[in-house]
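Practice problem: Protein kinase
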Amino acid sequence: MAQIVGGGSPVNDAERRVIAHLRDSAPDDWLLLHNIEVPRGDDTFEVDVIVLTGHSLCVIDVKGTRGRIEVAGTRWFPLRREAFGSPVAKLRGNGRALKGLLTQERRELDRVYVDSLVVLTGADAELVDPAGRDSRHVTDLAGLIGTLSDVSRVRRGHTTDTAPYGTAIIEALNGSVRRSTAPPRFGSWEVEEQLGGDTRVTEYRAINATVPGSETVLLRVYRADPLAEEEPRAAERRLITNAYQALTRIPPHPCVVRARDFFAIDDESRFVLVLDDVHGQALHLHLTASPSTLSTAARLDVVEDMLLGLAHVHANNVIHRALSPACVLVTEEGRAMLTGFDYAKPGPRAHTVANELPNVLDTHYAAPECQAMPERMTAASDVYAAGVIAFQLLTGKLPPVTPDAEPASGEAPVEVMDLLRRMRDHATHKRPTAAETLADLRRARRPRPAEPVRRVPAAQPPVPPHLAVRPDPAVSGPAASDPAVSDARPQDVRPRHTGHPQAPAPQGPGAAGVVTANPGATDIGRPVKHKPEEHGPEEHRPGRHPRDARPQAPARQETARPEGVPAREPLIDRLRTRFRRITGKQP
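Answer key — structure tokens:
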């Protein structure tokens, strides 16, 4: 059981678990301090746990982050959380500062090796570090004792036996450090968890101390030097306040992170930016996931939200200038939000922070015209970066240098891939604006209307001559075909069939298309039974859209019989003639 020699109150349950585990499971000769503040010049830094083992002094930072955590450069990308600066880099800096403090107190302590270790307490926490830069300094709760006991971690030139220096180490710490009595607090915001950061900014998750149980917020605490000269201090302040100035120019929007507050601490040694705590994960994680956790439709939704936020930002005269997958947050609901406005340009102004961009800019997403001159960043360069991000999200890889050389995507629509090529055109004037890109993307995603189905009328079979209907001589007679009689009695032009009631004359727009004298339209001695759809053009049928109507064939016109052509012999006369020829008798 390790001996606890001092310290303050643990901030959260994760720290309590680590302290209890070391107290109960570590060797008896180990010494333990927890929740202390170590002075560093005019500032202080906080240390969760310090362990004095038999061969080193180890500084420990406790993280309660859960799930998969991917390391990319100097940032960590956890699941369902916004990315934050690597705690390993910051902790190693604190370890060097502590080593310098011990050496100032006691010169012989220069031989003692000061180690640094980040402990992940989440049961399902998993660190993925392809470069291997941080993994050596990260362990979980189960492997903590074994890692601290590993003598091979001591670097060459340092002692592997701290027993002769134990008293000097405790005296140096007691004379320098002080216990932390309460969780860090910034204004009315009380810290729940430290997420990470670097030498410039530290990120925390916090709640409002005056409203217990309130929702959490994200705090970005920027360090400043209150004793610096006027000009460097003014430049530092402009850089610190830049994100807040940019976000206050942008009205609230569901696709842009929202700033709640910004204030200074006491002597302006720290500035605090309060942001919404968006529960999601950086788009970078979706780009490296295999297989992809997003369907093609969901990825297009993310691209659309990214463009929606970017169009809103540009409409309010703000340029992002550092757009990358680390600055696009995908929420648990599948919405995308723009973050990372530390280097944005909020409209025309007398000063610039573009000189800081080379230190943070990812060249894969920088437009060609800005590779060597970040100060030339414009809204067009934001569109270029969005095009690279969208291409990488839809295809799984970065685009080629020349837009015309890129391969076709088998999943995304051709119109979308063509739009991404135009977004990445090397000529800035040929790139569409963010608003135009958004409109083109929505148009490309819109389903096309179905082509109208054109029905071809079935061909009528020929009617045998012996079934053809001929005029009834009892009704029409020879005079029916006489033009003079037809002109005098127009009502008799329409043939009637004996033995059947006369149907009323067709009315309405379709009447002209009804021809009862068509020999192929009726059976012998029976009137034509017209179907309802034959009484008018298709555009007049109920339930039918005008764009689906077919052009109506013109009504058949009866041609007049030229003069001198004898009328056709009536049917009864022909029957009588045939009877006389067959029988030789009169009928």
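Discussion: The longest strand covers residues 31-40. Students who identified this feature from the tokens alone can consider the problem solved.
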